[in-house]
Design the sequence.
């Protein structure tokens, strides 16, 4: 299969950013107002019940004050975050990111699929419509049989009519004075009725988010919004509704694209504190505004999962009331988050959009995907300015050491989470010293890499970090 552009095989970060609105002052005020209206409705019910109980009208005077207090003391950002979490739970709606196109579906091969196409596996559609198609085939074959029977009766009637007409003409022309009787009549037969065939339903299509090639196979995992992942092989087909136009993100969403790329590449694949990831993104020169928006957008569109039962209190939406009551709480950045399987597929496809090539590994090189970061790492260096080494290229030990140094420098603030922070720092400096030498000392580098794997292996550094750790383990096993 031929290589394709990265935007053809994974949804653009700018499109993901458009899943949630920007946290503008107007948007925050409107969200707080909606929250106030909800509190007002609940309060009105309770006050109306109190009014009917005590028979006084003065409790109604508290309704405007309750509404204004709810608007004033609520946290708009926390409310937007909760909206994103609710959208993430209900992201089965396929039109969250893409508008459903109009038109008929057509059969296409997997090489013709692109992100944004609304597709359905042909085998799945055939399975779901089997009874309808069998019913249609039966009615059509029965109609064809009745047509043939009708045609046979018409032919028999035509032969009978011709024989009787010839005999009647012969008797009439005989001249023996006998009347031949009335002329024969042709009998007419009603044609068979046309069956009312059941209509085949339109395929239940969903928009493609990621086309993830499976290792060195030609099979492709197709991740769609609104349904589970499915796999197609080269000889399989899909039913596609051509989009009215290719998906483009609004201009205001493009400013969050770099933050979303870095977030999905560095987000942990196991449950981890959101504050650690936020700190890492800040060190990559992303503003708090962009980080907040990126996290909300990725949660709302299903690329990130959040721990709903950790780090969350009812009063988080009312921070001023919470502080007045001196309630002990954890902030929202202490919630647990991790990449979803969809997010992992997106990150791997972003790092490696091309179809794999089978290359026999040599003894001193490896063929794993990982990133060589430009230190200091910033903005779009991940998958952009940085040099990407994929399994179509041989990677030297020096390149692997340089990539490890860049990754550890970017994650230095998390060394305290390692099992032996001092040993990790010593290994980092050993690697830094080794890559600056004209001849890279193989034994020293491998020893330092072994320390990094054993000491920092429990740190979750996202998909980009996983590539490097997998590459290190492969090198040490040679």
Sequence:
């Amino acid at each position: 299969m031929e290589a394709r552009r990265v935007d053809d095989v994974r949804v653009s970060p700018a499109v993901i950013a458009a899943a949630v609105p920007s946290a503008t002052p107007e948007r925050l005020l409107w969200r707080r107002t909606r929250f106030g209206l909800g509190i007002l409705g609940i309060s009105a019910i309770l006050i109306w019940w109190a009014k009917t109980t005590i028979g006084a009208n003065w409790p109604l005077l508290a309704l405007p004050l309750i509404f204004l207090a709810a608007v004033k003391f609520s946290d708009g950002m926390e409310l937007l975050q909760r909206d994103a979490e609710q959208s993430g739970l209900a992201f089965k709606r396929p039109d969250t990111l893409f508008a459903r196109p109009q038109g008929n579906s057509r059969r296409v091969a997997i090489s013709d699929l692109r992100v944004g196409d609304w597709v359905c596996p042909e085998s799945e559609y055939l399975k779901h419509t089997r009874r309808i198609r069998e019913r249609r085939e039966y009615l059509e074959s029965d109609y064809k049989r009745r047509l043939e029977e009708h045609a046979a009766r018409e032919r028999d009637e035509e032969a009978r009519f011709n024989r009787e007409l010839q005999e009647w003409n012969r008797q009439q022309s005989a001249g023996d004075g006998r009347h031949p009787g009335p002329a024969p009549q042709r009998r007419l037969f009603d044609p068979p009725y046309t069956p009312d065939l059941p209509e085949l339903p339109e395929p239940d299509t969903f928009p493609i988010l990621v086309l993830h090639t499976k290792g060195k196979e030609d099979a492709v995992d197709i991740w769609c919004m609104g349904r589970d992942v499915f796999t197609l092989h080269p000889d399989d087909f899909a039913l596609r509704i051509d989009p009215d136009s290719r998906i483009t993100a609004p201009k205001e969403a493009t400013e969050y694209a770099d933050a979303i790329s870095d977030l999905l590449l560095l987000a942990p694949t196991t449950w981890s504190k959101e504050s650690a990831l936020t700190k890492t993104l800040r060190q990559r020169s992303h503003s708090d505004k962009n980080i907040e928006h990126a996290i909300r957008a990725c949660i709302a569109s299903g690329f990130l999962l959040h721990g709903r039962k950790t780090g969350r209190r009812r009063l988080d939406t009312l921070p001023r009331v919470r502080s007045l009551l001196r309630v002990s709480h954890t902030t929202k950045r202490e919630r647990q988050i991790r990449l979803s399987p969809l997010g992992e597929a997106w990150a791997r496809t972003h790092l490696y959009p091309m179809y794999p090539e089978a290359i026999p590994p040599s003894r001193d090189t490896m063929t794993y995907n990982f990133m060589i970061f430009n230190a200091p790492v910033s903005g779009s260096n991940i998958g952009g300015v940085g040099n990407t080494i994929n399994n179509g290229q041989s990677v030297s030990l020096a390149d692997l050491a340089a990539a490890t140094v860049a990754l550890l420098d970017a994650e230095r603030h998390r060394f305290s989470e390692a099992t032996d922070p001092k040993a990790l720092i010593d290994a980092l400096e050993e690697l830094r010293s080794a890559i600056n030498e004209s001849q890279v000392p193989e034994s020293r580098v491998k020893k330092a890499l072994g320390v990094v794997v054993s000491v920092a292996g429990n740190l979750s550094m996202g998909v980009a970090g996983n590539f490097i750790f997998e590459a290190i383990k492969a090198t040490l096993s040679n």
Q: What stands out?
A: Residues 357-477 form one domain. The radius of gyration is 35 Å.
